[in-house]
Every structure is written in structure tokens, then in C-alpha cells.
Amino acid sequence: MRRIRDIPLSRKLNWVIMSTCTVALLLACAGFSSYEWLTFRSAMPREQSTLAEIVGANCAAAVVFSDARSAERTLSALRAEPHVVAACLYTPDGRGFAKYSRHDVKWSVPALLADGYRFESDRLTLTQPVVYDSERVATIYLETDLRAIQDRLLRYALIVGTVLVVALLAAWAMSARLQRVVTDPILDLVETSKAITEKHDYSLRAKSYGRDELGLLVESYNQMLSQIQEREALLRSNRELQDFAYVASHDLQEPLRKIQAFGDRLKTKFGDVLAEDGRDYLERMQNAAGRMQTLINDLLSFSRVATKAQPFVPVDLRKVAHEVLSDLEIRIEQTGARVEVGELPTIDADPLQMRQLIQNLVGNALKFRREHIQPVITLDAHVNGEGLCRLTVKDNGIGFDMQYVDKIFGVFQRLHGRDQYEGTGVGLAICRKIAERHGGQITAESKPGDGATFTVTLLVHNNNGESNS
Amino acid sequence: MKNNGHGKRITILIADDDVDDRMLARDALAECRLANDVRFVSDGEELMDYLHRRNNYEQPGNAPIPGLILLDLKMPRKDGREALKEIKADSKLRRIPVVVLTTSKAEEDIYRTYDLGVNSFITKPVSFERLVQSMKTLTKYWIEIVELPPEKR
What is the ipTM of this complex? Predict the structure, then answer.
């Protein structure tokens, strides 16, 4: 048998309502019945006692004058009371004096019993004194048949039973209708959830039926759906943007390559016949094409942070830093820079992206050096108790105004003219994206003319390498 | 005897749908001063027609067997990968050296074409000078240096 918590909600509610109703009705019926029974038990002897008293009073004179015939006549008046089946009078010494029997003429007077009433299986017997002039002159005995009255009680019980059944049926019918006030919103919610899970359609909404707790539930559920829908849309547009950036930069390269190639041809074959300004125009065109090439390449590497992401493996940042420094060896020599590498830890990361990150940061530090001052670049890292690695790249270069601190991590954001410093403004955007992919972020601290410190936080332990948010 | 610029003319077959690229390739090969016979097809279907001498290439003179195929990957109808697969699966054609010359730098393209049996994978150089360089090296290597199995057909 299924447990109650596994049966459907509507049946569960029915079950709850019906069992509550049944218990309530049974208790009510039991109450009424016992009240009736108790009333009967206490009223019956009282009525009989009154009757006996009246009859006894009427017979008192006959007893005093030993007129048995007159006494029996008086007793026979009990015929008017259908439940009284027999009665008799006793003389004070306990002998039968007069008797009455409804059905049996040969009924014999029973032995005298003590005063009081007694319930027997189907009859009530009563013995009480007959008083005349405040003197006990006789004893009267009254026997009442209870069967008829028991029949009445039985009929009463039958009616109660019928009422119970009818009431329960009515309750069932009503609960079947009324429980829908509660179950309909819930069932609707369940249907909506099912549809959403099956179709992945987050534009569906659950129907609201009111402003009670269920209404609030439906409302917050719908709000959650809206949020999911927004997130989905955002994710999709992000993905589309990434795909777009990747595809666009791929396809943009094709015509650009030709501009460059035919520019080359034009210059080589016809450079001599062109006038000075013609060659200048050509030169500018080719420079612009070259710049576009750089922009596209940078955009490609920016979108590759997400599209060409590799799973995380343990990466020795110290080793990566030294590889980067040997790549940058010529520039370090040319600028006369001093690069100090502190103790760098091993963390779970995408090795290529770690290299890209450090290369961009150190490359920037070399690029934005102050003139006539030896560039000093410090790479260091600390792992805190929460498993977060703080990698810092500090330089003594030109620095920047902190009002631009948020701007510098945006794509194609630059603080300097192209003629001052080369670059497309993608490097730090790539760094930010890499940091975010590794569960951290990138911040910078600087003052104009006083160097800059870039801090990248990275999770030391990270098995999230498969996904790229 | 080795074939070189002074000897028997070698046919270089270039499969590329891009008119500009065909022009640049022709110019670059001309720049190499190797008097080779350069022919063009514009997609994989046409390449297979040429190699099997079908349709427009029924006349043997129209389709001399190439000594080197330069193959672009992105082409309409039948792309370079499919054509490469067919060439390398064909016992009569598989000995012709095929060099992929494409704009793609995608790793999976490099892996896949080498798996299909391509002889070299070259990314189209950006500048014309570099293209000339590449063509010179390519033709020198595949036509002068490398010993290929003698033609049977």
C-alpha cells in the first residue's frame, strides 16, 4: 500500500477532510446518543415513580379499608399507560393485596422487594411505599416494559446513522469541489514546472488564483522564472556576442589580408611611378590595415579566452613567470628593466591563460615605464587562509589616475594616444576575463607618475575548468 | 631526370574559390620565375572532375596530371577536407602531393587534414612577399628536392 505522503494531493486533501468530518460526526452522534440514553435512564424511573405515587394515592383508601376489588380497579387504570405491563400492591406485612397485569391474567405477584428501582434486561421495576396520612399503609410495585422504548432508541440510532452517512456524502461532494481552491493553484504550478522542464521554455508562467500564501508562492515562482529568462537571454546574447566576435574577426581577416597583399603589390610594382603624396597615402592605408590586423587579432584572443578555454590543471606560476620573462627578454634588455619574482604558488588553472595573464601584466609594466628611470617590476603572490591566491604585479611606471580604474579593464579602452603607446586596449580586458574564469577578479591601485600595482585574485583549488562562464 | 624550371613543365593545380587569392597565387608563382604550368579549379567538385577527367576536363590536354596540388579548405559545393579525403582514398591519386593553403589557423583543421594524409599545412601569409617566399620554398621542395614515385598513368 502506498504511503499517505505518496498519494496525489487532491486525494490526500479528500482523505484529510473526510477523516476529520467522520470523526467530528461520529463524536457528535455519540454525544447525542449517550445524552439520549442517559436522559432516558434518569427520566424513566422518575416518571414511573410519579405514576406509582398517583396510583398509590388513589389506592390508599382501598388499602386502608381492605377493599381489594376497588384497589384492583384503580390499578387497572394503568392500562392507559402502554409500557406498564404489571403492577401490584402489598400490605405492610408483605402479602400481595391487589394486582394488575396487561397481558397475563394469571400473573402472580412477585416477592416483595426493597424500595427503589431496578433496571433488568428488558424491564424496569419499581417498588415504593404508599403513604396515607403520613403513614405507610402499603407498598406498590410497578413493572415497565423497556423493549418499546429500546426500539425507539434503536430507531433513533438508525436515524443518526443515516444522517451520518448522508452528511459524509455531502461532505465528500463539497470537499471534492472546495479542495480545488487549494489544489488547483498547486496542480497548475506543477503542470507549469513540468512543461518548463520538458520544453526549456522559460517564458511560461504559472496562473495566480489569489493573494494568499499560494498566490505568493506562484508570484515568487513567476518572478524566479523571469529572472531565469533574463539570465538565459543574457547568456545567449553573451554566447552570441562571443561567437560573433570570433566569427567576425575570422571573416574580417580575409578581406584585410587582401587589402594588405594588394597594397604590397601596388607598392612594389608601382611605388616608383607614384608621386610622393601618392606613396604617403599608400603608406597610411597600409598602416591602417596593419592596425586593423592587430585589432582583429586582439579581439580574437579576447574571445578565445572563452571559446578556446582549456580544463584546469595544476600550474606552477613561478615556472610560467620565468617562461614569460624569457619571452620578454629582448624588451627587458632594451628597457634595462629589473624584474623581481617572489615566491609564486602552484594553482589549478588554464596554463595558457596564466601565461597570457602574466605576459600582459608584465608587458604593460614594461610599456608604461617612465622615461630615464629604470623600470622595476615586482611579481609576488600570497595565498590566504580561504584558498585565494593574490598575485600582484607592481611597477614604478607612469601610473594612471584612479578615476579611470574601471575603464582600463574594458575592451578597446585606452588612456593614451596611439602615437604615445602602441596597443589596442584589449590586454587588461583579457586579464579580467581570465581572472573571472579562474574564480577571481582583477583590481588596480595607482597614482599618476607613481607606478601601478595590479592585483589578480585566483582560486588555488578549482575544478571548474570544464565550464566557461 | 629531375624536373625543374628548365626541364619538363610541372603542372601545379590550385583549388581556391577566391578570385583574388588565385590572382595572388599566380603572381607569386610568376615571381618565383619557375616556368611551371599553373592551373586553377574553384571548388572540390571541379577539382575531382579535373583529376578524374570528367565533364569539362575530358580532353587529356585540358587536364595534365598535376605534380602538386595547393588546396584551400573553405570552398563551396565540396570543401577541401572532402576533396582531400577522396584524393587520399583513391589509389591513382593518393601519391600526388597535396598542400593545404588556407586562412584557417584552427588546430582541429590542422589535426584533421594531417589525419587525412595531407603532405603539408600552410597558413596563407599576410603579405605578398611572404606568399612569394612560401611558393618558392614549396615548389622548390616538392618539385626539385623531393623524390616522388614515378608516374604510371
Answer: 0.72
